[in-house]
Amino acid sequence: MTGAALAASLLDALPQTQCTRCGYPDCRGYAEAIAAGEAEVNRCPPGGAEGVARLASIAGRTALPLDPECGNEAPRAVAAIDESACIGCALCLKACPTDAILGSATRMHTVVASLCTGCELCLPVCPVDCIALVPASGERTGWDAWSPAEAEQARRRYELHRRRLGAPKLPAAVTALQGAASNRQEAIAAAIARARAARAGS
């Protein structure tokens, strides 16, 4: 099997959460690194032990215990936004690899749970910590908590997300109508200050 074909087979066996816990920018990057002999098959916590076994079988390697540096196998969770605390900064929209978060600048955001992969990438970018993870799979972990259909949906949505972010920039005249970019950070800072003051007063 050629390197490209091997990488494609490995990619098909990954859960497509695009969480980056493996140390690579996405599932494709990790699959390509395994195919090139640059990464072990035990770096995908969302896939769990079964996922490691699948990757090892495809790559012709020995299955190893999940690398604890990448995280632990655990029940699946999805993101949820405290809508009363959301300031509409829109930072989570770009961070979400499957565009599972709906909202726009200065408007409250919400998560479509059925589209969320539980990647956790929205958590560190939220300036007011209004995003939390909520259980979604009971005690089920790895591929018992995820399905090939969900993985394929996440994969398609990630490709659309990448295309959206890679789209050509709008003409200057259009971006001017959307508001001056130089004021954006000031608006976010002011909103954060208001949110913190409101929390302190409650």
Structure explained in plain terms:
With 202 residues, this protein is mainly alpha-helical. Among the domains are: 68 residues, Orthogonal Bundle (3-methyladenine DNA Glycosylase II, Chain A, domain 3), CATH 1.10.15; 70 residues, Alpha-Beta Plaits (2-Layer Sandwich). It is built from 7 helices and 4 strands, in the order H-H-H-E-H-E-E-E-H-H-H. The strands form 2 sheets. A two-stranded antiparallel ribbon has the order 1-4. The chain has a two-stranded antiparallel ribbon with strand order 2-3. A hairpin with a 7-residue loop joins strand 2 and strand 3. Helix 1 crosses helix 2 and helix 1 runs antiparallel to helix 3. The longest helix has 18 residues. About 5% of the residues have low confidence.
What's the arrangement of strands in the largest beta sheet? 1-4
Name of the CATH class of the domain at 77-136 and 168-177: Alpha Beta
Total number of helical segments? 7
Shape: elongated
Reading the helices and strands in chain order gives HHHEHEEEHHH
Ends apart, CA distance between termini:
62 Å
Largest sheet: 2 strands, antiparallel
Low-pLDDT ranges? 172-182
Query: Which value, in Å, is the CA radius of gyration?
Result: 19 Å
Secondary-structure-derived class: mainly alpha
What percentage of the residues does DSSP assign to strands (E)?
Answer: 5-15%
What name is given to the CATH topology of the domain at 77-136 and 168-177?
Alpha-Beta Plaits
